[in-house]
C-alpha cells in the first residue's frame, strides 16, 4: 500500500459532483481519489490568515518530527517495521478515510486557537517521550557500566568487584609493614616483554647506597621472582607482584636548618613506571561478597531495562495515534487556509486526498496542472520570481514513510 498522499483543494466552478468527477479523471492511472469533508472553519482577518499560514510551515514540520520519532522509537524497541495502528486501522487507511474530529477540535473556535490546540497537545506528547527516553537511556547506561565492569578487559575493569573468589583464594596476598602484593594487567602483546623485564620496573625508585650517600645506588621495589600470572582474558594477562611498600628518607641539614625525614610510598610511583611501559597497576581490595552482589546487580539492571523498554513500547502504541491524528488535522487546516487565501470568500471548495501509486507523484501533479490551468492568474512578464513554482490548485504533500 502506497504511503504517499496529496491533499488537494479546488473551487467549485459548477457543482461539487462535477468537481469530484474532474478530480477523479486525474487519478485514473496515477492514484486513488478519496473525498474529504472539511468543516467551514472561522476565517478571521486576511492578515491573521497570512501570518498563520507562514507559522504553520514550521509547526507542521515540528509535529511531523514528533510522529516520526515515536515511530522510530517503537521500531527500535520492537525490532520490526510493523506500523502502529491509528484508531485500530493503518495510518494509510485513516488518512484516506479521514473524518474531522469535532469533539476534540471544535470547528467554531478561531483558527489560531485551533492550531494551538493541535500543537500544544503534540508538544505535551513530545515532552513525555523525551522524559521516558531519557529514563530508559539512564537505566541502559547503568546496566552497560555493570556489564563493562564484569565482562570488560582486565585493563579497564574494577578488579575489586570482578575478580572471582576462586582466583583470589589461590593468591598469597601480602600486606605487611614492608611488603605488598599488587596486581598488574598486561596487554597480551606485551606479556613476554613484561615477564622478561618486570624485575627492573621502577629501577630508580629505591635508594640503597651507603649511609651518607643513599641515592648513589638505585633499584626497583619489585621482589625478584615474585611475578605470577593468575588470570587471562581476550586481550590481557593479570599478574601479581610483590613490591616494597616504601622507604624512609632520613632528615638532613640545609645550612643551619634541619629538614625532617619522611616516608616515601612506592605504590603510586610504581604505577607510573608501569604506565610508561603500557602496563596497568590495578587497585584491589578483596571483598568476598562482591561477586554475588555483581550478579544480583546485573540481573536487576537487566530487568529494569527490560521493564522500561516494555513500558515505552506500550506508551508509543497508546500515543502514536493521537500525534498522527493531530498531524492530519494540521494538514487539513493548512489546506483550508491556503484555499481561502487563494480563492477568497465565501468558502466554496472541494477538498480531496489522493493516495499516489509508487513513482506516480509527478504524473498526478502534471495531470492536475493541465486540468486546472484555467485557475492560474494571468502573469505579467517578470511577475514570477525565478525558481518559484506556482500550481493552479491548492495542495499539501503528505508522505507517511
TrEMBL record:
**Assigned keywords, A-Z:** Hydrogen ion transport, Ion transport, Transport
What GO molecular function annotations does the UniProt record carry, in alphabetical order?
proton-transporting ATPase activity, rotational mechanism
| Protein name stated in the entry | V-type proton ATPase subunit C
Q: Name one GO cellular component term.
A: vacuolar proton-transporting V-type ATPase, V1 domain
UniProt keyword Ion transport, yes or no: yes
**What does the subunit comment say?**
V-ATPase is a heteromultimeric enzyme composed of a peripheral catalytic V1 complex (components A to H) attached to an integral membrane V0 proton pore complex.
The organism is Triparma laevis f. longispina
One Pfam family here: V-ATPase_C
Functional note: Subunit of the V1 complex of vacuolar(H+)-ATPase (V-ATPase), a multisubunit enzyme composed of a peripheral complex (V1) that hydrolyzes ATP and a membrane integral complex (V0) that translocates protons. V-ATPase is responsible for acidifying and maintaining the pH of intracellular compartments and in some cell types, is targeted to the plasma membrane, where it is responsible for acidifying the extracellular environment. Subunit C is necessary for the assembly of the catalytic sector of the enzyme and is likely to have a specific function in its catalytic activity.
